Amino acid sequence: MKIQLFLVTVVIHCSLAEYYKSKPSFINTCMKSDPDFDDCSRDAVQQLFNALGPGLPEIDLPPIDPLNIPKLRILQGEGPVNINAALDNVVVTGFGKTEVLHSQVDGKSYDFYTKVRVPKIRIEGTYDLKGKILLIPLVGRGLCWFEPSNMTIDIVSDVKMYEKGGFPFFNVTQVHVKYNIGGLKLHMGNLFDGISSLEDSTNAYLNANWKPVSESLRPILSKTIEDILLGFMQRIFHNLPANFMIGDLKTNLLKRNTDKEVND
Question: Of all helices (H) and strands (E), which one includes residue 74?
Fold first, then answer.
C-alpha cells in the first residue's frame, strides 16, 4: 500500500535553542540498575508528558495540548482507501490527558518502549478531499473533525547516543506505533458541494461503520501519530541530557555509537 504523508511547516523543529544544563524540576532521574526501574521510568515519563502539555518555552517547544499543525497532506493510492487530501489549520486536542501505562528502556541499545492511553483526541481543520473510503466516492472542501476515543498507543523509539557540550544525549531516529481505539466519531462538512442529503447520509454511514473506517485509515493515522511523536521526541531529547533521566547511563555505549557530535 502506497502512502505519502507530509507535515508541512510543522511547528516542531530543531533550532539553536539553549539546552538544559541543569536538571529541570519536571524530570525524575531513574537508575537502570534499580529493580524498580520500569515503575520509576513510567512515573518519570508521566511527569514529562504533564510538562509537555502547556509547552516548554525555554527550549521553544510548543504545547501539545492544543497542538497546532499548519498543514497535513495525505496521499494514499491503493486498497479500500484512495485519498488525495489536504488538511489546513489543524488543531489537535487531548494529548494533555495522556496516561503513561508502561515505560521500558533497553539496557543495551537504550531504545524506548512506551505504552500510553489517551481518553479522547479531537482533530479539527479545513479539509480538501477527493477520493474514496470503503469504496464510497468522496469529494468536498470545508470544515471537519475526527474524534478517536479510548486510544491506547504502543510506541517503540529507535535511539542513538551522542555527546554535546560534555553531556550525553539521546537521538530518537525513528518512532514506530501500534494503536487501538474504542470508538471513532467524525464529520466532514460541505461534502458533495453541500448537497445536504448526501452529506448527512455519508457522514451517518461512516460513523455507523466506524470500525472498518478506522481500519481502512489505520496506515494514515499511524503515520500521522509517528510523525507527531518523532518531532516532539527529537525536540525534547536534543535539549535534555540523557543522564538527567537515567543516572547510571553507560558511557561506553556513547563512545561506541558516536563518531562526532550531533547538532540540534
Answer: strand 67-76
Q: How crowded is residue 159: how many other Cβ atoms within 10 Å of its Cβ?
A: 19
Hey, which bits of 80-227 come out as E strands? 81-93, 99-105, 112-120, 122-133, 136-164, 167-180, 183-188
pTM for the structure as a whole = 0.83
Q: Cell triple for residue 9?
A: 511547516
Instruction: Count how many residues are written for the chain.
Output: 264
DSSP assigned state of 191: B
The C-alpha cell at 230 is 518523532
ω into 66 cis (within 30 of 0) = yes
Phi, psi of 177 (to 5 degrees): -125, 150
- Give φ, ψ of 212 to 5 degrees: -65, -30
Helix (H) or strand (E) holding 8: strand 3-8
Grid cell for residue 70: 499548519
Burial label, 15 (beta-carbon count in 10 A; 0-12, 13-18, 19+) = exposed
Name the stretches of the chain with pLDDT < 50. Answer: 1-16, 255-264
Whether the Cβ atoms of residue 161 and residue 112 lie closer than 8 Å to each other: no
